[in-house]
Amino acid sequence: MSDLAPLMSRLDALQARLQRFEDAEAIRACVLRYMALCDRLDATTPMDTLGDCFTEDAVWAGKGARYGSAFGGHQGRAAIVAMLGRYRGSLPGDGETPVRAPHFSFNAHFLCNEQIQATGADTATAAWQMLQTSSFSAGGSHLNAAQLQLQMRRDHDGAWRIARFETENLLSRPVTGWHAEAALPVPARHD
Predict the structure, then answer these.
(1) Pick from 67, 37, 71: which is nearest to 53 by CA?
(2) Rounded to an integer, what distance in angstroms lies between the CA atom of residue 121 and that of residue 153?
(3) Which tens digits make up the pLDDT trace of 37-67?
(4) pLDDT digits (tens, 9 = 90+) for 126-175
(5) At CB < 8 A and 24+ separation, what contacts does 18-27 make?
(6) CA 129 → CA 134, 153, 185, 188, distances in Å?
(7) Which residues does 183 contact at the CB level (< 8 Å), separation at least 6?
(8) CB-facing half-sphere around the CA of 88: CA atoms within 13 A
């Protein structure tokens, strides 16, 4: 039996390492699902799926002077979903007259400089720098860069969810637009 102890110890260590990788992947998948839903936030967006990215008691907060005043803070999944719902617009038959266009006519989030760190068996911190390119239904386009600081938690059902989402502006500027009709500059074919 004592001959198995070192092997069992190594297996336990490998299992713990594998769990950290699987947890990091689940955290990443949750945040990427949230960003993908925000990129297509309109009246058809499944808000229950968007809400499922957050714990019931989650906090969503803008940090710093620019984002703190623009976004404020929202406590609880229902409050977060309601805040994000204001960006959706409406469809005919939603009870709104006139029908509202979604806030964004184009929206894309790009995440980089990822850092995911376990802080316990069921908790972790995660950080990204985010670039957001947006055009608005009301006109105009904007480029924003932000620092995201998240607290993640494995929920009662085993799924990783966002327990705290903080976004702080790093750069913000209007741009003239994202899509131009000019031909793409590509090398000529030499057949």
Answers:
(1) 37
(2) 9
(3) 999 999 999 999 999 999 999 999 999 999 9
(4) 999 999 999 999 999 999 999 999 999 999 999 999 999 999 999 999 99
(5) 20/118, 23/118, 23/124, 23/154, 23/160, 24/116, 24/124, 26/159, 26/160, 27/116, 27/124, 27/126, 27/152, 27/160
(6) 16, 20, 29, 36
(7) none
(8) 17
- Residue whose tokens read 């995440």: 111
Percent of the chain with pLDDT over 90: 75
Q: Taking phi first (over 0 means left), then psi (-120 to 50 degrees means alpha), and beta for anything else, what does residue 177 get?
A: left
Report residue 146 as tokens: 């932000």
Distance CA 74, CA 82 (A): 9
Give residue 79's Cα distance to chain centre: 16
Q: Where do we find the tokens 């509202």?
A: 100
